[in-house]
Design brief:
The structure holds two protein chains of two kinds. Chain A is an alpha/beta fold. Chain A folds into two domains: 321 residues, Rossmann fold (3-Layer(aba) Sandwich), CATH 3.40.50.12780; 96 residues, ANL, C-terminal domain (GMP Synthetase, Chain A, domain 3, 2-Layer Sandwich), CATH 3.30.300. Chain A has eleven helices and 20 strands. In chain A, strands 3, 4, 5, 6, 7, 8, 9, 10, 11, 12, 13 and 14 form a twelve-stranded mixed sheet that branches. In chain A, strand 5, helix 8 and strand 6 form a beta-alpha-beta unit. The two termini of chain A are 32 Å apart. Chain B is an alpha+beta fold. Chain B folds into two domains: 67 residues, VC0802-like, CATH 3.30.2130; 68 residues, VC0802-like. Chain B is built from four helices and seven strands, in the order E-H-E-E-H-E-H-E-E-H-E. In chain B, strands 1, 2, 3, 4, 5, 6 and 7 form a seven-stranded antiparallel sheet that branches. Chain B is globular, with a radius of gyration of 16 Å. Chain B starts with a strand and ends in an 8-residue tail after the last strand. The chains are: A alpha/beta, B alpha+beta. Chains A and B meet through helix 11 and strand 19 of A and strand 1, strand 3 and strand 4 of B.
Amino acid sequence: MERYYQKEIETADREQILAWQNERLVKQVRHVWDNVPYYRAKMEEKGVAPEDIQSVEDLHKLPFLTKDDLREAYPYGLLAKPLKDCVRIQSTSGTTGRRVVAFYTQNDIDLWEDCCARAIVAAGGTSGDVCHVCYGYGLFTGGPGLNGGSHKVGCLTLPMSSGNTDRQLQFMIDLESTILCCTPSYAAFLAESIHERGLRDKIKLKAGIFGAEAWSEEMRQDIQNKLGIKAYDIYGLTETSGPGVSFECSEQTGMHINEDHFIAEIIDPDTGEVLPEGSKGELVFTSITKEAFPLLRYRTRDICVLSRKKCSCGRTHVKMSKPMGRSDDMLIVKGVNVFPSQIETVLLEQGYPANYQIIVDRINNSDTIEVMVEMTPETFSDNLGKITEMEKKLVSALKAMLGIYAKVRLVAPKSITRSEGKAVRVIDKRKI
Amino acid sequence: MTIPQISVFLENKAGQLADITNILSENQVNMRAISIAETADYGVVRLIVDDAARASSILLEKGFILTMTPVVGVAVSDTPGGLSKVLGVISSAGIDVEYMYSVFGQQEGQACMIFRVADTEGLTALLEENGIGTVTGESLGLH
């Protein structure tokens, strides 16, 4: 028997969902027009006034927002509520120059946590469960989001945060965790550790909610088999709230988008045109309930497909496929957003040439990133120690910029292929 | 009196060193000493050759990254304790040796060791004071 966190909403018929969306969209556009001069200017530039938006049908008239807008408007330019009404910020993975700060009122947090609670209940969670959250806590939305959702469901919540595998396993066994929330690669790593240490009989896990990075169907099978659980995908982004924008149900054939809070569109990333249902394209979200940071037509850069096919779980909200790629050059490594331009900045600052190559791979279910850098006469020395020292300096500068460890490989000059047209900066060997 | 040393950057992959020796051989450059320092991913090959100026311009032309460093050739008695005596003198003077390696072959009971130090003049003077000879480029057949 399928259970829901908010049954009336999650199983509402199409007309009802549309009615909510129409009403909320009109209100939201007015709220943004009145309180966000940055977006109002964009609307004026496009010749659109709030009166022009009467329903979801009119959504396409509104201008897009991109990550560039978020950076330009940093920190308060897209804020729609006085700071005194805001209670929290969250931010994207500490990446200098690309930072996105999102604001929340208490109501925003409540609704976000509701979305996460829906995901937990869809994964079989009840107040009798022990929810083990090892997403990072802090600025990253993963930990706080699932933590809040778990509270709403009434699970006993273990705010483990990431890292320290020994402690994770100890708590998992001693406190009999039943639901695991983390990145799929960390889940795979934990599964491997449990398998190696012969702890399979001692764990009580029944479900996992894994997101923040791409994972394959093979990886899902592997985690499910090793842990004896059902593994559910969850999707979200800081810009729109965090995890819980969409989540998987027992059918495991896509993630239900919480349409009472977000309107999803699929566009052609080149022309910006809205594509017909079922087309593959870039996912665009409009937040219709957020008060503090209401983004209208935010381009996620994630490429996917939407489906309104009837779902056996009974939920009526549209489903999105797993993201199949990006319409920009952003990489997601270990759940962290990485832009090649960030790496380039560090290399130039450290006196290395801008001719580099990034190799991303997944080894033993864990993402690796390697930066190939060409040696220069200036950085070369007859003393190996000095080269190693420079290499270490580069590694720490990259760590400071990206927030994750990237291996540096110094290579001979001109050994990185210079292609005729667009340089091949990234080689992603992961099979996702 | 110092000897010019060529240090070349080497990626740790098959055939890199052979590339260098082939180039030198094709150009009739004779090697007098070679030493390699490496990490798992890359290394530095240090060479003493008969014509350093020509060898370095050829390698540069071929796209290698290199640097020239003056090093000191020290005559070491080819008997037990020969090197120990030299190192004793250097360490009591508090001189830091960055690295050292030997030259192929020996002459009249003497081996030649290459020393890389920050202050080559200081080392030469110190050795002289202690009756230890330095080796000239000429005696190694360098032009």
